[in-house]
UniProtKB/TrEMBL annotation:
This is Cation transporter. The keyword Cytoplasm does not apply. Keywords: Membrane, Transmembrane, Transmembrane helix, Transport. Its main location: membrane. InterPro entries: Cation_efflux, Cation_efflux_CTD, Cation_efflux_CTD_sf, Cation_efflux_TM, Cation_efflux_TMD_sf, CDF_Transporter. Residues 11-202 form the Cation efflux protein transmembrane domain. It is a multi-pass membrane protein. It is found in: Membrane. It comes from Roseococcus pinisoli. The chain crosses the membrane at residues 7-28, 34-55, 75-97, 109-129, 149-171. It comes from the Bacteria.
Length: 295
């Protein structure tokens, strides 16, 4: 199995362990906020499973029906995860409304709170692992899972603080209030995931800072050419697709122009990693005197 698949399997295992711990903590305390926290972990399990399927699918090589590969499958997983997060948020809000109408004192079960803290610590550790390796592998599914876990860690810490505050002050309405804040935070997290994943499906251009690096690399590596214009880019999973027109002197031999293209491709792949580069060579009469001037 690839590193990404191993991490996805690990996410499923961790999500199941955290769900079991949080359900135990809710059962021991009866806290609505901890119930909301546990419900989000149900989403974590479903999302981790979807990410595993998507990563395995994206690892399939290109074929006749998918000549550009299957990398976009990870974006579908991230969209699904965002949708599940939104559903969980609305279910939590329903439970919050019921508890708000009939607030009650949560049980001060030290073991339940300790179990919840252990689950939060486990989530935080795995979140760090997913962020580090997901960004290195340029996996949208793993990064989406990491962001979801980060939101879970933040809300879990807030829930624990709210329960302790409610018990100390006697203001038991703080328990459903913290659950409501958890739901709002989850809503924002889910909306962000959906927006970013849809952007990948819609072939958004690479970020401005990465485009600037591409332009600078082309300018430095294209010695012998005149300019590069009409640069277009998009991201598909770990792959970056780049295409542009390269203007060369009209009397340049084909072999010389090809050498320049090879040099540019090597420089871009060294800078970006996995990249698919398409260069259209044009004579100097096609110059637009704009875009990237060759240094």
């Amino acid at each position: 199995m690839t590193r990404a698949v191993n991490l996805a399997v690990g996410s499923v295992v961790v999500a199941l362990a955290v769900l079991a711990l949080k359900l135990a903590a809710w059962w021991l305390t009866g806290s609505v906020a901890l119930f909301a926290d546990a419900l989000e972990s149900v989403v974590n399990v479903a999302a981790a499973g979807a990410a595993l399927v998507a990563i395995r699918l994206s690892a399939m090589p290109a074929d006749a029906n998918h000549p550009y590969g299957h990398d976009k499958a990870e974006y579908f997983s991230a969209v699904l995860e965002g949708a599940l997060i939104l559903v969980a948020a609305f279910v939590i809000l329903h439970e919050v409304w019921t508890a708000w109408l009939r607030p009650r004192e949560p049980d001060l079960a030290p073991l339940g709170l300790v179990i919840s803290m252990i689950a939060t610590a486990l989530n935080a550790a795995w979140c760090s692992v997913l962020f580090r390796h997901g960004r290195r592998l340029r996996s949208p599914a793993l990064v989406a899972d990491a962001r979801h876990l980060l939101a879970d860690v933040v809300t879990s810490a807030g829930v624990l603080a709210g329960i302790l505050l409610a018990l100390v002050t006697g203001y038991y309405w703080l328990d459903p209030l913290l659950a409501a804040l958890t739901a709002v935070n989850i809503l924002f997290s889910g909306a962000r995931l959906v927006r970013e994943s849809v952007g990948g499906l819609m072939d958004e251009a690479v970020p401005p800072d990465q485009l600037a690096r591409i332009r600078h690399t082309v300018s430095c590596a294209a010695e012998g050419a005149i300019e590069a214009h009409d640069i277009r880019s998009r991201q598909s999973g770990r792959w970056t697709f780049i295409e542009f027109h390269l203007v060369v002197p009209g009397d340049m031999r084909v072999v010389e122009a090809h050498e320049i293209c090879d040099r540019i491709e090597a420089a871009l792949k060294a800078e970006l990693g996995d990249a698919v580069i398409t260069i259209h060579v044009e004579p100097e009469g096609k110059a637009k005197h704009s875009g990237v001037l060759v240094l």
